Amino acid sequence: MATYVILSTLSPDAFKNPNELKQLAATVEERIKAECPAVTWTDSFLTLARFDVVDIVESDDLKQLERAALIIRAYGHASTETLQGTPWKEFIAAL
């Protein structure tokens, strides 16, 4: 299964109260689970850098991966960049 990194930057007007972020995250998670069953969420990280959220997902269905990124944009009020990643050990083994 291919691994992808979705880098998200939240819109400044995405929420007014930090507690509202919980509901945004829950909505995004529910929509992706319902609409993108071929996308497996591996992990998520909050960062204090250029991107607010880093999500690690796996999928063999590019269309569903694209849909998941669009759901994050629409329901999460974010801009995203999606990168395909190769686990380091696999990369080194292929050399």
The helix content, as a percent range, equals 25-40%
Largest sheet: 4 strands, antiparallel
Order of helices and strands: EHEEHEH
- Count up the domains: 1
pLDDT < 50 stretches: none
Identify the strand order in the major beta sheet.
Answer: 2-3-1-4
Distance between the termini: 20 Å
What best-fitting shape do the alpha-carbon axes yield? globular
Please tally the β strands and state the result.
4
**Tally of helical runs:** 3
Given this structure, which CATH class is correct? Alpha Beta
How much of the sequence lies in strands comes to 25-35%
What integer value in Å does the Rg equal? 14 Å
For the record, what is the CATH homologous superfamily label? Answer: Dimeric alpha+beta barrel
Structural class: alpha+beta
Oligomer: single chain
Textual characterization of the structure:
It is a single chain. The chain has about 100 residues and is of the alpha+beta class. The chain has a single domain (about 1-95), classed as Alpha-Beta Plaits (2-Layer Sandwich), CATH 3.30.70.1060. Helix content is about 40%, strand content about 35%. The chain contains three helices and four strands; from the N terminus they run E-H-E-E-H-E-H. The protein has helices at about 20-35, 60-75, 90-95; strands at about 1-10, 40-45, 55-60, 80-85. Strands 2-3-1-4 form a four-stranded antiparallel sheet, covered by helices on one side.
